[in-house]
Specification:
With 384 residues, the protein is α/β, with parallel strands linked by helices. It contains ten helices and 22 strands. The protein binds zinc ion.
């Protein structure tokens, strides 16, 4: 197969911004990145003209539940995978939610079956299990009756149903027995993620010592920061070990709180997520999710009582919001949606345009809207 070169655009690696840059691709990987004229393009290379657009690493969404009416938690995943490149997402974690345990197990089996032979589209890095191991005090939209504490034994059962594909687990470490499960998760390459948690600062500190290093949607569904009890939010800000997920839809977190988190943690420890509900991208209306009616209205997904039920935004909107609401330059706004996100789950060949990395690339127009997306060097989507 001949190689490809994407040229005539500004390359964001994202550590570096290269005007009139070129990305050379061979065999699904990036062969070279540099300035046009400085990177040698072999004969017979297929040329893709970026027409002056931004050439950025594909977005990595480690926390998303679905899009366009399709849910990651079951057969809908087969339609989420091909839909994601339109939002600039080239890799993601299929994120589950709290259902009664037998339904969770069934869903994990279905997801695993789809991932054994996935359709063309975004690359699924694995499963992010969000619940049922949440705090009954901070369930978010989850039904409190269905939550129960994490234990190593229970995790083994779920991981077996998922055929080893669970890569992240959001849980409340303060629940009985949950703390002791952390070392085994880490030893098995599963990222332990604090979330939907009412833990005290001291409890989070203990969890960090055991290997906790990631937090689900910082600020949302966790004990807030108070000056005498810094809570989960204070601990997430305080411990450098923790990657802090952030929903930047402009609804879940006030822009000032987004800015504070980014200043405290630095862009390399903030992970932009969509937390998209399956209704993201659909018109306003009434839908059903987790056996409950959900109302989508003007960019919010919520239950009848106003509890937020996932986000309406997709990850590209989060990147635009970092630019438009916080005033970050694009080269900085890209970092939490690409390199940081990939690093947070150990996917070190994703989220950056460097020789040897996977050729997962998105072209962004002047409004930071995706125009074309490559996964593993293959053009999988172009804007109609
Ligand atoms: Zn979620």
């Amino acid at each position: 197969m001949p190689g490809k070169a994407i040229l005539n655009g500004t390359v964001y690696t994202p550590s570096e911004k290269i005007e009139a840059g070129v990305v050379l691709i061979s065999g699904g990987q990036i062969e070279a990145v540099g300035r046009q004229g400085e990177v040698e393009i072999p004969p017979n290379t297929e040329i893709f003209d970026a027409a002056g657009m931004a050439i950025a690493p594909g977005f990595v969404d480690v926390h998303m539940h679905g899009v366009l009416g399709k849910d990651c938690m079951g057969i809908g995943l087969a339609e989420v995978i091909p839909a994601l490149p339109a939002y600039g997402v080239t890799s993601f974690m299929a994120t589950t939610l709290t259902y009664p345990r037998p339904e969770v197990i069934e869903a994990l089996e279905t997801i695993s079956e789809i991932l054994s032979s996935p359709p063309s589209g975004a690359h699924c890095l694995g499963i992010h299990l969000e619940g049922p191991h949440l705090s009954p005090k901070r369930p978010g939209m989850a039904t409190a009756d269905w939550v129960y504490p994490l234990s190593s034994q229970d995790f083994d059962v779920l991981q077996k149903a998922a055929d080893g594909r669970i890569r992240m687990i959001t849980f409340a470490p303060e629940e009985p027995g949950a703390m002791q499960a952390i070392p085994a998760l880490v030893a098995n390459g599963v990222v332990p993620v604090i979330g939907h948690s009412d833990a005290s600062y001291e409890q989070v500190a203990q969890a960090v010592k055991l290997g906790l290093n990631h937090a689900t949607h910082t600020y949302n569904a966790m004990r807030p920061l108070q000056h005498r009890e810094p809570g989960v939010v204070g601990a997430v800000m305080h411990f450098d070990e923790i990657y802090a997920e952030l929903i930047a839809d402009g609804v879940h977190v006030h822009p000032a709180a987004m800015d504070i988190l980014i200043r405290v943690k630095g862009l390399d420890k903030v992970v932009l997520i969509s937390d998209s509900a399956p209704f993201a991208g659909l018109p306003d209306g009434e839908y059903e999710w987790e056996h409950k009616p959900i109302f989508v209205l003007e960019g919010r997904c919520q239950l009848a009582d106003g509890t937020l039920a996932g986000a309406f935004a997709t990850l590209d909107m989060g990147v635009r919001n970092l630019v438009n609401l916080l005033g970050l330059p694009l080269e900085k706004a890209l970092i939490p949606a690409t390199r940081s996100a990939a690093n947070s789950v150990g996917a070190h060949r994703k989220g950056r345009l460097e020789a040897g990395c996977d050729a997962d690339i998105v072209l962004l127009d002047a409004d930071i809207r995706p125009a074309a997306t490559f996964v593993g060097g293959r053009l999988v989507w172009t804007r109609p």
